[in-house]
Design brief:
The complex is a heterodimer of chains A (294) and B (235). Chain A has two domains: 93 residues, no CATH class; 167 residues, Rossmann fold. Chain A contains twelve helices and six strands. In chain A, helix 2 runs antiparallel to helix 11 and helix 3 packs across helix 4. Helix content of chain A is 57%, strand content 11%. Chain A has 294 residues and is α/β, with parallel strands linked by helices. In chain B, strand 1 and strand 2 form a beta hairpin. In chain B, helix 3 crosses helix 4 and helix 6 crosses helix 8. The longest helix of chain B has 36 residues. Classes of the chains: A alpha/beta (294), B mainly alpha (235). Chains A and B meet through helix 1, helix 2, helix 4, helix 5 and strand 3 of A and helix 1, helix 2, helix 3, helix 5 and helix 8 of B.
Chain lengths: 294, 235
């Protein structure tokens, strides 16, 4: 059983900041006992610097987008296919199944899945197609209920909202998987969307969905599950594509601006990696020492 | 107000947790906040139970398709709740310290204080049902993964394009290189297998990881700055 972690935003910022540095090849330093930590963690200045830089690029692009600057976004097949999948379900008179992962709301992927669910629920509400949302964590139940309900309200069909389709199944990973598989085999949804944080159950879900003949779209930032989704689903949103969904589907200039901010940060990291590799090659270790997450 | 208050709480708590990472003085407050989060998460179980009970009771009352399974589910849930909470509570309140014998076996041999609710401890009936019914069923579901991997691998390794061909060759080299037979066939196979895993594969994985991490940080910033509000419902 995976340990429960609390503090959504601690995980969100600390985890991902370290993740970037780890992904860049840095080795985490062993935590040292410090008796008086002082007023400020000076050793974390590197992370603060990059966080501030990211925030600056982020808001610069939002400002440019708000000022009317048009940014280009490449076509993401998986997101283009969402409407097609909903349309197919409508034609066949079957439901759309939306699985928001198996993690709690302290995982940013679950929060983001709720954001995408809002867009999907609006599409589904417009087409008057049933939307089934199985839930693994009790805390996600009210979030999903509110998100779907509000989407139906926004498109002007509140009566079409069915609270019984937001189904809490089980907090246990494979009990939940069995429950979702059961829904797929009994109710035969024509479209299965797996968007969120998934673990070992990913292939069981995707293969069962494949056997029912549903069109399947998956998206996750859990790198180890991506190969499973790639082989068993029609479309897969990999890592950052998953986090681009909201901006892509809403086409809101502000949100598209945030995507460009992320792209600029990526360019900066790429340059930093190349410079770091060159410096290390010539025996200059200052940059890599400073970049080490502590 | 319905959206503004949660948004304000999200912003305050979010920024506080960011600052806590840099200012050690705030750490004790942040751990307190995290304890609150754990308590709230535990309380949310009630929401889950309510949802399961409502949907399945409705199914039974309407005699929907497969409604009999809902009775089994509700009965199972009620039975486990009774075993896990009510029975130990009665035992501890009335200072009953005897053990239960079901089917000739001692199931509740755990000693505990008069007001301690240890209904799910090792050796209890609750625990026995969990260990000998639920855990094997979970393991069965997990074991299905082996068959699903086989069927998924069969589909993805069918060589229909150059890319699929490369994938199949790489997969075969890695699979053979990772078993003792690989070294027997040719001593270079394990080295090639390791190189594929630690160079091209790791490079691609890290690229995805960096993108995903940046996306997660960007989403965090959007949420705590109130730019992204759809998770609270509505536009």
């Amino acid at each position: 059983m995976r340990p429960v972690t609390a503090g959504a935003f601690r995980l969100l910022v600390r985890g991902t900041a370290s993740l970037v540095l780890l992904a860049a090849g840095a080795v985490p330093a062993v935590a040292k006992e410090v008796e008086d930590p002082g007023f400020f963690h000076l050793e974390r200045l590197n992370i603060l610097f990059h966080l501030v830089l990211f925030a600056f690029l982020f808001f610069l692009c939002i400002r440019l987008a708000a000022g009317g600057r048009k940014f280009f976004i490449r076509k993401i097949a998986g997101l283009e296919a969402v409407e097609e999948a909903v349309g197919r379900s409508t034609e066949m008179g079957k439901a759309v199944l939306y699985v928001p992962g198996i993690d709690d709301v302290n995982n940013i992927q679950t929060i983001y899945s709720m954001i995408i669910l809002n867009h999907v629920a609006k599409m589904v509400a417009r087409y008057e197609t049933p939307l089934i949302v199985p839930i693994c964590r009790p805390f996600v139940v009210p979030l999903a209920e509110e998100t779907v309900k509000q989407a139906y309200l926004d498109v002007g069909s509140p009566d079409a909202f069915n609270a019984n389709n937001i189904r809490y199944l089980s907090e246990e990973q494979f009990a939940f998987t069995a429950g979702v598989d059961g829904i797929m085999l009994r109710e035969k949804p024509a479209a299965n969307l797996y968007l969120g944080s998934f673990f070992a159950e990913s292939l069981i879900l995707a293969e069962t969905g494949f056997q029912t003949g549903a069109i399947q779209i998956a998206g996750t930032a859990n790198v180890h599950q991506l190969p499973f989704f790639v082989v068993a689903c029609d479309y897969t949103l990999m890592g950052e594509e998953f986090f681009a969904a909201s901006a892509y589907l809403s086409e809101e200039p502000k949100l598209i601006g945030t995507l460009k901010g992320t792209d600029l940060m990526k360019i900066y990291l790429l340059v930093l990696l190349i410079v770091g590799v060159l410096l290390e090659t010539f025996g200059v270790t200052g940059l890599s020492t400073w970049m080490e997450p502590r | 107000m319905r959206r503004e208050v949660p948004l304000l709480i999200t912003m305050i708590v979010g920024w506080f947790m960011v600052l806590e990472f840099f200012f050690p003085q705030a750490e004790k407050w942040s751990s307190e906040l995290q304890n609150w989060a754990i308590i709230m998460t535990a309380l949310a179980s009630v929401l889950g139970v309510a949802n399961v009970a409502r949907i399945n009771m409705l199914k039974v009352s309407r005699r929907d398709r497969d409604w009999r399974y809902s009775i089994v589910l509700l009965a199972g849930m009620a039975f486990m709740v009774l075993l896990g909470t009510v029975f130990p509570m009665v035992r501890s309140l009335f200072h009953i310290d005897s053990s239960w014998a079901i089917g000739g076996g001692e199931f509740m041999g755990v000693t505990y204080g008069p007001y301690r609710l240890s209904g799910v401890a090792a050796g209890t009936v609750f625990n026995q049902f969990y260990d000998f019914m639920f855990v094997p069923m979970q393991a069965t579901m997990f074991a299905l993964l082996a068959f699903f991997i086989a069927s998924a691998a069969y589909r993805s390794f069918r060589i229909r394009s150059v890319e699929a061909g490369l994938l199949a060759i790489a997969a075969v080299v890695i699979m053979i290189g990772r078993v003792p037979l690989g070294r027997e066939i040719w001593h270079g196979l394990p080295e090639i297998s390791d190189w594929i895993m630690s160079v091209p594969n790791l490079a691609a994985k890290r690229a995805i990881l960096i993108g995903a991490a940046l996306g997660a940080i960007a989403t965090g910033l959007k949420v705590i700055m109130g730019i992204e509000r759809n998770f609270l419902g509505g536009d």
